[in-house]
Design a protein that fits this description.
Largest sheet: none
Radius of gyration: 26 Å
Oligomer: single chain
Strand content: under 5%
Helix content: 55-70%
Shape: globular
Distance between the termini: 81 Å
Order of helices and strands: HHHHHHHHHHHH
Structural class: mainly alpha
């Protein structure tokens, strides 16, 4: 309890927030280092994972190699790089160690998301004549978006939390507050630095959750499906579905009837036509039109 009270008093002291050794300066260093490492990790892992997931070959080997690299402690990699000739080049040992630490979750989640995209939708898009890049950009990436963002959030939080190790190699960031506390035998300062790192990691997670919800390519379709449900006067929740069957996209239905049910018109109607009807149900005839015998 004394350490928590002392940490609160340390954080409430204005002098600890100003100057080159203050919290604001260390926070800026921490954000710059974390952002740079996350950017380099995305530039390394995302193109490779998207390509391997799209072609369906070599992905298992790459994911297993990245998982093996995850088992190596980041601190050990940082020490080895610092003792090497690379240690004379500023923050590069820390940057390389953090990039190697952030690549595995990105590579694994993105590759898994592309490979587990709905194969019926992917094959229907391929049958419509989409090229490889069109198939990846318009179908596979939107379907894999949740797993892609999960990998990005995981990598970002891990980088923010692990960037405190930069202080051990002489770098900046919030880790310098913790190491200074250890050097001065100031437990309150150590706890205050740890609290700052934890709060920053939670803030980054919250911001990425908002970004995930804002840029979700399937958000509009889910809203449209919720809006198409009957409001007041409709069947109660849990009631059986109407006899005429669930509503489907008219363009998708007309395209399917003209081509004998073999193709859908447009990439937008593709996912709706594949997922509109629940499994095991047969859509009824359109209302207002007589059924031909």
């Amino acid at each position: 309890m004394d350490a928590i009270t002392g940490a609160w008093q340390w954080l409430a002291t204005a002098a600890n927030w100003a100057g080159e050794k203050g919290v604001w300066h260390r926070l800026g260093e921490h954000l710059w280092l974390s952002g740079l490492c996350l950017l380099l990790s995305c530039l390394t892992a995302l193109p490779l994972a998207l390509w391997l997931g799209h072609i369906g070959r070599g992905g298992a080997l790459a994911v297993n190699l990245s998982n093996v690299g995850r088992a190596v402690p980041t601190f050990a990699v940082l020490v080895l790089l610092t003792l090497s000739p690379l240690g004379k080049h500023g923050d590069w040992p820390t940057i390389i160690a953090l990039v190697l630490f952030a690549v595995p979750p990105l590579l694994t989640n993105v590759h898994l998301g592309i490979r587990e995209a709905d194969r019926d939708v992917v094959e229907a898009a391929r049958g419509m004549g989409m090229s490889g890049p069109q198939l990846l950009l318009r179908v596979e990436i939107p379907l894999a978006y949740p797993l892609i963002m999960t990998g990005l959030r995981s990598a970002a939080v891990q980088v923010v939390a692990t960037a405190t190790l930069a202080a051990l190699a002489g770098g900046g960031g919030l880790g310098r507050i913790i190491t200074a506390g250890f050097g001065n035998y100031d437990t309150a300062q150590v706890v205050a630095g740890a609290v700052l790192v934890a709060l920053l990691a939670l803030l980054v997670e919250g911001v990425l959750v908002l970004v995930d919800r804002s840029f979700d390519p399937m958000r509009g379709r889910r809203r449209a499906r919720r809006g198409s449900r009957p409001a007041s006067g409709g069947p109660a929740a849990g009631a059986p579905a109407p006899a005429q069957g669930p509503a489907v996209n008219p363009q998708a239905a007309s395209g399917a009837s003209q081509a004998g049910g073999g193709r859908l018109s447009g990439a937008g109607a593709l996912a709706e036509g594949a997922h509109a009807a629940p499994s095991g149900s047969t859509p009824g005839p359109p209302p207002g039109r007589a059924t031909e015998v």
